[in-house]
Amino acid sequence: MGKYIIIGLKVVLAVILAGTLFVQLFMIPMILIHESPSNGTDKFFQAAFLGYLILAGLVIETCVYSVWKLATRVKRGTVFDPASLGYVTPIIVAFAVGALATFALGTIFAASTDIAPGVVLLVGGAGLLMIGISIIVLVLRQLLAQAAMTEAQAAELRTELGGVI
């Protein structure tokens, strides 16, 4: 990848991180301060949704950190090192946890008669999307592992060829 693509990616990641932190540190507390549901059921749904937002922020922050580190490794030319796999695994786990949390939120919403069934269906679809992303990243992790192994074998062959010459 080119230098400008890496810089562009890091700018986008920084904006995403700033937006996520803004929601977690300012928006959620403002909602808690200014919105007080009248009955216990509404309080439960509000708490579930705000808890989900906090967890979603952690998922996003984990992915941003991992992609940032991988982009740095790409820039340095060390992405095909087995150590890079340590930055891919948290992305897989984060999306899996996010999917479970999304399904839990959908289940909580489904128990209510106030939440439209279409909303529950959309939340379930978002959970399925997260599972799909997690599986795609898992496949890409396997490809990265194969590329790292091939790179190591190529380096070994270069060393042996250098000894022969």
Notes on the structure:
This is DUF2975 family protein. The chain crosses the membrane at residues 12-32, 44-67, 87-109, 115-140. The protein has one domain. Helix content is 87%, strand content 0%. It is built from four helices and no strands. The two termini are 33 Å apart. Helix 1 (3-34) packs antiparallel against helix 2 (40-76), helix 2 (40-76) runs antiparallel to helix 3 (85-110) and helix 3 packs antiparallel against helix 4. The longest helix is centred in the last third of the chain and has 48 residues, at 117-164. It is an all-alpha fold.
Helix/strand layout:
Layout: H1 3-34, H2 40-76, H3 85-110, H4 117-164
Transmembrane segments: 12-32, 44-67, 87-109, 115-140
Keywords: Membrane, Transmembrane, Transmembrane helix
Pfam families: DUF2975 (PF11188)
**Radius of gyration (Å):** 21 Å
Number of domains: 1
Number of strands: 0
What fraction of the residues are assigned to beta strands by DSSP? under 5%
- Helices, by number, come to 4
Helix content, binned percent:
over 70%
Keywords: Membrane, Transmembrane, Transmembrane helix
Pfam family, one: DUF2975
Transmembrane segments: 12-32, 44-67, 87-109, 115-140
Protein name: DUF2975 family protein
